[in-house]
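Tutorial, part two.
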Amino acid sequence: MAQRKYMKRQMLLSVGVALGLGFLLYVLLDPDSFVRQMLDPENPAKENGGLLSFVRNYGYWIFIVYIALTAFLLFLENRNPDRTLTWLLVLGLFPVAGLLFYWFVGPNFRYLADKRRFRLPKPPLGALIPPEQLKNSLVADTAALLYRSGGAKLQPKGGARLLIDGTQTYAAMIGAMEAARHSILLESYILADDGVGETFKELLMRKARDGVKVCVIYDAVGSWRIGKRYVRDIREAGGHIFAFLPVSFPMFRGANYRNHRKILVVDNLLGFLGGLNICDDCAGGNIKVGRWRDTHLMIRGGGVAVLRSIFFRDLAVCGAPPEVQAELSRVAQLPPHESSAVMETFLRGEEGEAFARNVLMQIAASGPDTAWDTIQKAFFSMITRATKRVWITTPYMIPGDTLLNALCMAALSGVDVRVLLPGKGDHALVTWASMNCLEELLRAGARVFLYSNDGFVHAKTVTADGSVTAVGTANFDTRSLSINFEVQAFVYDEELTSEAEAMFERDLANAVELTFAVWSRRSLVQRIKENIGKLISPLA
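Running the prediction step on this input gives:
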């Protein structure tokens, strides 16, 4: 709510300044201006004056002021130069519509990280385990970067389990929520009013009636079809539910800055994050793209408290009343040992066995509420410091020049770079944009695989040198890495990374490798699509 109001004030202020400058310029340049004619009752030209006459005579100057002011605001944002030039082109070609479109989706509000509500607490200097104590430079440098750029502390002695596909993930999430005694904190980009969404809603309502503190955050654009009944039912059962940055017309994708995070925290004991939303598509199949393949991560230990703190920062952005935030925070921080016997039984089962080993991890958040593109920089660190292999699974591949150059440099240096993408996309323009970088990757020696046409891979994972695995919500594209609110776990564990690599190789068995020889002979139509995608990628 606070950010939405701030954006609205900024828009009104800028439009007001533009109109004021235009008016001032008009009066200064023309002593016989329309205003003076209208103010002079003896002037016969008053009868022939009017707004249309004013626009006809001075529209050129208004246009110049408009372009100058908007360009000045664009340069003040210190955005990527490609995005700046793209927006200037849009504003120049479509003066009125371009201005409205820019203020609807374009402004860069990263400087909101300096606002008090978005400011991250400075972690104590001793919170980071010294890098020299870590095993290798890849782990040490990536961990140090995450700490210094985003305050992500290393969490030792935590447990982590990879969850594959919706069936396994939803079963674990539902089992954890069934065992909850104190609190359930759920955050999702898409929360759908369908079969899976109804199952989650009924469970949340029942736990709320049983006295468990339930709070849900859903993105107003990603969940625009959720419906008032869904929200009302949870509130009437005693739960709390909030929309993240509501907009007037979410079906048109709304304001540009969206909360793409998927977080579940139960009793401060268990945490979940990854690619799966709460909807039928992720449970099994999607009519348009077929079988859905995704990856989630279930964690124990200090990382759970990090997820909880990210959740409460997002809750503050939603404008939740202070008393609600205080109540939820107090309950959510109850000691884990006060959990119920049901939870202990749940943890001693199949899930408990997966948590038997201790892993070192960091949980990184990135978005307009952080000063740096933390997740992007961590990916860059993994790619440039790897000496053996970097394997990436992502549904969208629009890495930008920095990461694309890093991948090409790694491949040219002999690193085994592999990228797994969907064979069939779910959004045409984004798919075209994703295809644009493939020729350069293939030319550099990277290997690109397209997932089977009867399924869609939506997982967001990166592994490097058998020692680091990144799992979370961030796609390998400019929107996730520079615009959206995201969260990613970086796990430093050879055993879990071995599992992630084995999962990657199983996915390759259901994929087709794309070679440079074949791709270089693609049709002219395909090349045109790619260039259209490239043109809109700075805005994607």
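The chain has a mean pLDDT of 79. In part three we will examine how such features are distributed along the chain.
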